[in-house]
Fold these 2 entries.
Entry 1:
Amino acid sequence: MTDLKQSEGTNPRGIPKAPFVENVTDYVSSRADVEPTLRSFQELISKYQFMELNTQRRGAGLRQKIPDIRNTLEMVRYLRSRREAADSGADNHDDDDDDDDADQEKKLIQTTFELNDTLYAHATVDPKDTNEVYLWLGANVMLAYPIEEAEAMLAEKLAAAEKSLAACEEDLEFLREQITTLEVATARVYNWDVVQRRKEKEEGKEADGS
């Protein structure tokens, strides 16, 4: 029996290709090799299925995380744009104190934010006070970031998450192809064994008849 080795080459994440059985006799030279070959194929299928399950879980986590990152980034960009508009307006109306007070009140941001899963609070935010934002980093850790730094960090994090999700989807497709390849290989070896058994049976009958 030819040693069972995965085909040369891997995908971009290093997952090896499955062996492609074009000629069954390349893998089995006698019926004694059939069971070990089929067992080896099944072991490879199990490994690919395990990787497929882990990749599906990782992809599901990213699909949950990406909308949160995107929404946070959009909010940071909104706050930055409101702050820049407020700063610009202040520069244009330095001499009109009464008008400035009225304009400032109109420019305040009225918002509702989440304290807990079912608990929300109202807040009034002055755009001029949004020089920094507080971001949850996970594991009950929150840090303050200058708003420009927060925007850059979130944009980078979003791009990385989207790239990872694309890689997960590509890996899933690749893994399913390898599983299918091995299932076809299993069927070919099994069918070859059936044919060989039939031949041996017929040859045995002929020998008995002679």
Entry 2:
Amino acid sequence: MMITSSSSSSNSAVAAAPSPLIPTIILLLLCLPGLFYLAPHILPPPPTPPISFPEELEDLSLFRRAAAVESNANNPSRPKSHLGSTNSKPKIAFLFLTNSDLHFAPLWEQFFNGNKSNRHLYSLYVHADPTVKTKIKSPGGIFSEDRFITAKKTHRGTATLVSAARRLLATALLDDPSNAFFTLISQHCVPLHSFNFFYDTLFEVKSHQIAELRHLKYKSFIEIISKDPNILDRYNARGKGVMVPEVPFNKFRMGSQFFTLTRRHALLVVSDRRLWKKFKLNCLRPQSCYPEEHYFPTLLSMEDPEGCTGYTLTRVNWTDSVNGHPHTYYPPEVSPELVYKLRQSNFTNSYMFARKFSPDCLQPLMNMATEVIFRD
């Protein structure tokens, strides 16, 4: 009886024990929401779609027209200034590349209109991602609808940003033969000097007559870096050996995606086919791929290194970058001292622009625009 009783008690205990599958299932159910939240942050992003063939054909048609117009403008029978323009007062074309609101439009309005006589000295073009609804903070001003060019979707870390910049350059070349310099900036950029100061710096106004007598060839302001710890990784982002023979490793360069190009270099960029067929390829390692920071400095370094300064006029703070983005300035940081600091450069010219600023910096910047930013 004792043995039977013990066996019965044991069977009862086994029957009462919960299945180990039940807590496992419960745990998985509890973890599912967390997995859905964390997956985008853990898993690599899906590959972005390549530039489509129809888009490529549209761009090619635009670039060919820009090159053709320039060829006609270079007709020997046509009178020119020393910059290759028929206009005695050459212009600066400002190229805004954006995928969000132009938060600092009022500040740029003040930059351009600080002196009403400036209007004939600049042109303005905006490439806004058509998939993003963009608001203009100063309706009826210089950022009017006719300043927005035909645009296509852009993806960070892909050749679409290069295509957008080339589109802006080609449009500006076609639009006005007086456009002599082409300055690419983003919606996060702000000016650090007045327009007059910038214009005089580019065209060397103080030595203008000397420049004409010597037939001085103006240079493009673009950062060109040949030595960097990440340069090999960037070079192989599309796979080992993919870039050759067009771009050997010793010719590959890095730099800022924002620049000021001369007209001859803008034409060089929109006329290029050889290097573009390599840089437009999708990357195997998106975290190492920033075509907009590689294509322009590589092309110009290979074609005309003496025609480039090797530095940009846009100041960027990379000391505490996050996920490939530079330091972002917020209202508590905005002060006259910051503007003076951002102007400082180790090169011949001081910095003319700076990024990256958060949208809520607009009012603090406007508050000191007249007395600090545009007071040279």
